[in-house]
Amino acid sequence: MTKKIAVLAGDGIGTEIMAEALKVLDFLNADMSLGLTFEDGLIGGAAYDVHKTPFPQQTIDLVKKADAVLLGAVGGKKWESLEIALRPEKGLLGLRSELELFSNLRPALLYPQLAEASTLKPEVISGLDLMIVRELTGGIYFGQPRGVKTLENGERQGFNTLVYTESEIRRIGHSAFKIAQKRNKRLCSVDKANVLECTELWREVMEEVAKEYPDVELSHLYVDNASMQLVRAPKQFDVMVTTNMFGDILSDTAAMLTGSLGMLPSASLDVNGKGMYEPIHGSAPDIAGQGIANPLATILSVALMLRYTFNNEVAAVRIEKAVNDALDGNIRTADIYSEGMTKVSTSEMGDAVIAALK
Ligand code: NAD
């Protein structure tokens, strides 16, 4: 049975890194008879230029009928003065809500060859491999009531609401436990149950969900301690699951532990495992068009897609191992370059991954 992938390259370096990810995917598709088909669509500034909206109806139709979405990056100076609703980044938000992508997976994996890029000591960080699962469509970013009002004494008051229903917590819980089952079977749930009733419920529901996954070891941490542990001893974690806002903050910390933005993939999944896969970095307008961007985060996003949407662990591991082998060959794009290495272009890095796959 064929499976369709919607390919949305987007803006800036998006087109350059996507070309390399597709080269890798084309190779594996033929080599392993994966039965994947591809269809291009426009998103972000590229879509605005043609359709005057960053998320046109054609793209909505395409992503809805696709089995997975592979995205490059959106944004750039050219569109910065547009009203907010028309800016490229709104295309991404539209995509997330249209597909109900509630589970955001942000792995932080440090290849030992790049340990020098981290600001932490190599022994603390080398071999880091953790996954943060962030609830993406609920919590304080969406809770009502919200706003700024003027009190009777004339002072202004700002307010937001942290709200989660049991079913929302259960849904992200199941997603995180399933991911832990595919990894080292340890899940740490992060909350602030000592202060926030909403996350007291979060903890209770996580405990209930845990009963269905006896092979996964569940632990809990308060978010303040979790953030401290992430920089003190990050290798203690396998999978972490947390709310929208805590996940927003912790996943950026985890990403920066590795020190190399161009290496980190991400996934956003719906309840059936359909997903959108993209690098965590943006469209890098400062280097766009120069052929020097690092394509590995996008190539590694392809590996996540094969693992989490297409349940093909063998193909996913092949890509991850090929990236490792390419780095072992001492080639580096400019962002991860260090003395003694060979500096390569975006397409040369893609070629090296394919050579390693062969
Ligand atoms: P950015 O991630 O695009 O760039 C930050 C820095 O990292 C830049 O110096 C850039 O050259 C470098 N960089 C990023 N990816 C790289 C890669 N693959 N290889 C080599 N170097 C890389 O963040 P920014 O500069 O804050 O934002 C630029 C644009 O991207 C903005 O319009 C922003 O809104 C958008 N953005 C989009 C996404 C997304 O599409 N998911 C995410 C973040 C930012």
Task: Tell me what you see in this structure.
- The chain is of the alpha/beta class and 358 residues long.
- It has 2 domains: 1-102 and 270-358, Isopropylmalate Dehydrogenase (3-Layer(aba) Sandwich); 122-263, 3-Layer(aba) Sandwich (Isopropylmalate Dehydrogenase).
- It has helices spanning 14-31, 45-51, 57-65, 88-98, 122-125, 166-182, 197-210, 223-232, 244-258, 296-308, 313-328, 346-357; strands spanning 3-10, 36-40, 68-73, 103-109, 129-135, 147-150, 156-159, 186-191, 217-222, 239-242, 265-269, 275-279, 331-332, 342-343.
- Nicotinamide-adenine-dinucleotide (NAD) is lined by residues 13, 17, 73-76, 89, 92, 261-262, 278, 281-287, 293-294, 297, 335.
Q: Main sheet: which strands, in order across?
A: 2-1-3-12-11-4-5-10-8-9
CATH class category of the largest domain: Alpha Beta
> Which percent band covers the strand fraction?
15-25%
Number of strands: 14
Overall domain count: 2
Question: What is the rounded distance between the termini?
Answer: 25 Å
Bound molecules: nicotinamide-adenine-dinucleotide
Largest sheet at a glance?
10 strands, mixed
Shape: globular
What is CATH's topology name of the largest domain? Answer: Isopropylmalate Dehydrogenase
CATH architecture of the largest domain: 3-Layer(aba) Sandwich
CATH fourth-tier homologous superfamily of the largest domain: Isopropylmalate Dehydrogenase
Order of helices and strands: EHEHHEHEHEEEHEHEHEHEEHHEEH
- What class, by secondary structure content? alpha/beta
Averaged pLDDT: 95
Question: Helicity level, as a percent range?
Answer: 40-55%
Radius of gyration: 21 Å
Count of helix runs: 12
